[in-house]
Structures are given as C-alpha cells and as structure tokens.
Design goal:
alpha+beta, hpI Integrase, Chain A, 9 helices, elongated, 3-stranded antiparallel beta sheet
Length: about 190
C-alpha cells in the first residue's frame, strides 16, 4: 500500500506506521522537528492535550523524508483539509488492484496497527498507552486488537533422560509436564 502511493503520501503513511501518531500531528510536523544525525523526530505539537514525545525512525523513513521538497516550514506542506483524504483515496492501491478489503484502510488504521504490534512485541499495555499518548488506559485497549500472531498447534516430544531433555531444550522445545517418568516438551509449529 505504501509503495503504491506517491512520494509524499507514501512517506506520510510510513511515518504513521512507524510512530502511531495521529494524522493531524503528522501534518503539523516541521523540518525543525527532525534530527537527521540521530534519526529521531520530536512531536512538539501533540493533539488531544498529549505530551510531546520523541520517536526513533528507521533509516528508510529518514531517507524518504530527506528526499521530500522543502517548499514550506512544514514537512508535508499542507494543513489538514479534505483534499489530503481525497488524495489518499485516489492513490489507494485498492482501486488499482480492485481489492475491496484495502478500501477499509484509513490514516487511523496505521495507529491501530502500531498499537497492536507494539503490544504484541512488549506485552506492556502501559508502554502502548504512553506511545499513543493516552491519558486513560481504556482508550488504549480499543487500539490493541486481540490478534493471534502464533499458532495454537504444537510439536510434542518426550525425554526420558537428561541428555534427551537437553537436546530438546537446545532445539527450542520448552518443558511442559511430566507423565509417568517421561518429560513432555513442546514447541509451536
């Protein structure tokens, strides 16, 4: 989706994906908010009475940002208006590929994606709450979708000796239980 958009819109979508910031926050960013030496971005004007925060950006995103024209003090050079949303809809890969599921993606979808992946990575809802700059954890729970990233299916192996148990542990199996003097190990498929 990001690759199918123009340079400016694709860069904005990648920024939303990496940071989880709101579209209004992204549109208010100025060139002074970027530190190309440290690959960081400081959000000085958060929405909804949030606190300023700093993000570490990928090398790819920093390269894309550095290639954008500097016609304004603002990185994306526009204020929020309906034209940005219309431009996004026109460029959507969904229309090019005739894939109706992609039509459901909006700017805010990237915020949900970031929250869900950060929660899955850290298992720390307070970290996600701070990342999204929410004052109430209940708001964060709306964003962290219950997505199953791993299969519920396992490979099971048994070990009767210490050497067998060590081999299974080295192969990535985890101890599960003991049944009739045999240790049962399992590993996700």
């Amino acid at each position: 989706m990001i690759a199918g958009c123009g340079k400016k819109t694709g860069t904005m979508l990648l920024l939303l994906k990496e940071t989880g910031m709101r579209i209004g926050e992204a549109l208010r960013l100025s060139w002074e908010d970027l530190d190309f030496e440290r690959n960081t971005l400081t959000l000085n004007e958060p929405e909804k009475h949030g606190n300023p925060r700093q993000f570490r950006l990928s090398v790819t995103l920093m390269a894309r940002l550095s290639k954008l024209p500097r016609k304004s003090t603002k990185i994306f050079g526009v204020k929020w208006n309906n034209a940005v949303g219309i431009n996004f809809r026109r460029q959507r890969i969904a229309e090019k590929l005739q894939n109706p599921r992609l039509l459901q993606i909006s700017f805010h979808t990237f915020r949900h994606w970031k929250a869900t992946t950060e929660y899955h990575r850290t298992k720390d809802i307070l970290h996600v709450t701070r990342l999204l700059c929410h004052r109430n954890i209940q708001n964060t729970l709306v964003y962290t979708q219950l997505v199953t990233f791993e299969s519920d299916e396992y490979h099971d192996k048994t070990a009767k000796t210490l050497d067998e148990a060590c081999e299974l542990a080295e192969a990535g199996f985890e101890f599960f239980t003991t049944i009739e003097s045999a240790q049962v190990f399992r590993k996700r498929k």
